[in-house]
Amino acid sequence: MAPPRRAPPELTDKLVERVLLHIPPTDPAGLLRAALVCKRWGRLTFSRRFRSRYRDFHGGDAMVGLLCNLEDADGKYVSRFVPTPPPSGPPRADLRGWRALDARHGRVLLRDLVWGSYLDVWDPFTGERRQLTATPPIQDRWSWNAAVLCAQYDACDHLVCRGGPFLVVVLGANDAHSMSVCFYSSDTARWSTPRRLARLPEHGVDVVPPVLIGNALYFGIDLGSFTTSGPAAPDVDGVVEAAGGGELGEQSPPPVAGNEALEAVGEELEAGVDDDNLDADHDEDAPLRRDLAGDVRVVSPGEVSNRQERSQHCERPLLVRHQMVLQVLEKFKMMEEVHFEPWERMKTWAPGKCRFLTADRLAKQNLPHPANCPLCDREAKTVDHLLAGCVFARQFWVDTRVSSSTRSGLNLATALVMAGEETWLWSMAGAKDLSLLTGHDLVEVINYSYLRLAWSPRVAECGIHWIDNN
Amino acid sequence: MAAPESGDGNNGAARMVTLISSDNTRFEVEAAAASLSQTLQLTILDGGGGGGDGIPLPNVDSATLSKVLEYCIKHAPAAANGGAPNATAVDRAELERFDNEFVNIDQSVLYSLIMAAHNLEIEGLQSLVAKKVADMIKGKSPMEIRRTLGFPDPTPEEQAEMNAHMLEYGWAYE
Question: Where is the Reverse transcriptase zinc-binding domain (chain A) (predicted)?
């Protein structure tokens, strides 16, 4: 078709914006190309107003940055927040002596590495830190992990809930034999009674960022089992819908912060189990065998203490699951066996995308550029440094592969997706029911998320540079 | 033909309104369909456009207006339900099919539609055509986008600037 030679349509700014809105967020290069069409389109694309509209239009699924647990030059632990350009987001921050355990719904869960198990919930936008009033009531100080989520995890769009009530869920080794789950609500400012829910796996709870899918929160356990040929519990397959059985309440250790609400939680817990998913058989060893992959329904304290408002709260109780990661890691192990090398794979996967707009290339064009690598601040920003030399990059690659000799594989970086990972997990999976996802799907999801988290900011950055220069 | 009823376009017998295009062609449509246009809605609520009066639309020619009304008539029943969840999957699929075919048109018509949808403030149609244009520029280079949308050719200066950026941002063009 010959290019039309008629007079250009008088597309107003509003109409151009409307068109640009329909470029999907998964195609940042498309947005960049549109921005290069002419100066007016460029100005529109990078205007604050359009970015805000674009975010709203696409469900607020914007990523604002990365959290990375690093060691600084002195060997001190630091949790570093690197914002996604443009700089209208929260500022970059170094949190010395803290480790980011989890980030979700605009909140970051930090653990004090100097003084022990203190937990803070941090809002990178305002800098506000909310300290939890007590350390989690978990006996074993080493083998535990925690997740933070909006108290309305299921009933909120998480666009503006950042400063609002939150839940912290801890899964940890309770004694030498069992794992427990307990949760903290910012409303009551206390920890619930730990609920024993499973036999302690051989290698304990791993500090992998938990994943929230729908109303189910997944923790990684027993990652060390991959030194052998398969999962520690080969009789476990899929997500088992049963919980540990009726003994949960009795075997809990004494409550640390018991109150009437927590008894109600116990009722809910068992009611939930009876309601819809426990099979008829209650034989003696079934709970032990099953509970390695069990669920526990945890009802938020706010929900219980405020029964009349329950209908306004999340419709589905929160499920805590601790098995999915096994499937994922099994896949990673397979990739390792074929000498999976992420950087190599990335070059093959998207050769064109490997031309990043690094400082040396910006300098050649006399475009504004940072002197040093924006991630580590130390060395010049060249593509080799960015992808291989930078301490951040090295950790990133470690994150994407799990060495059979390194138990801590995935735990180095925590992704911060402000509107909740659920949105893009859904779109990635294209499935109506995420519980149907297979281990393979999840590997895809995780690969995708890491690539996106690490590299899509570069696209936004170069767009901004172009505009600044013109 | 139903006589205009006092201010109430939503009962029993469909109330009709007359729209007059820039080239003086008269279109008679149900008020419900014409009301998809935010611009027309108020006039129609006030009882305008009925009988012999007609609402003049000096910015929309007859070819475009008939196309716009085709869209409105198709979408009016769904809009009248006000997003009520009684629309079946079949209905929605049918609307989707209609939309896809509807925008499968010559570019000049598409541009007229964009302007008309904008002037008449028909939300659904605006989104539909914007999405169509976004699809048209998908995967294209800035230069191709300019050509596709009928922008004038860049001046030599602009061209040099674009070439420089194209070299620099090569990855965005692959």
Answer: 344-397
